[in-house]
Write the C-alpha cells for this entry.
Amino acid sequence: MVNKKKYIFDDPKNIKRLLTFLYACCALLFILDFVIHRHVFHYWENLWAFYPIYGFVSCIVLVLIATWMRTFLMRPEDYYDDEMKDYKKENNQGENLDQHNMTKMGEHNVDV
C-alpha cells in the first residue's frame, strides 16, 4: 500500500471554502465601490464598471497581441537540435557528443 501525499486542494471541501472566500471578497469589493469615494483624474473613471470593463478589454488585447507575436516568434520543435548538428559538424565530432562539450557550447552549465 502506497501512501500518497495529500495536498490542501485535494479535498473538495477546501476548494469550496476557497471559492466561497473569493466570492465574498468580490461581493465586498463590489459593495465598497458604491461606498468609497474615489479621487479620479479622468471623467470616464466615474462610469459604472469602468475598471472591470477596462481590465477585460485589456486582457483581450493582450491575447490578440500575443497571438500575432506568435506568428514571427514561433520556432520549429527541433530548432535547437539543428544548432547542435551544426556545432558537431564544425568541430568534427560524431553523434556521441559528451555532456562536457555540450555545456561548453553555450559557455554555461545549468546542471552544476
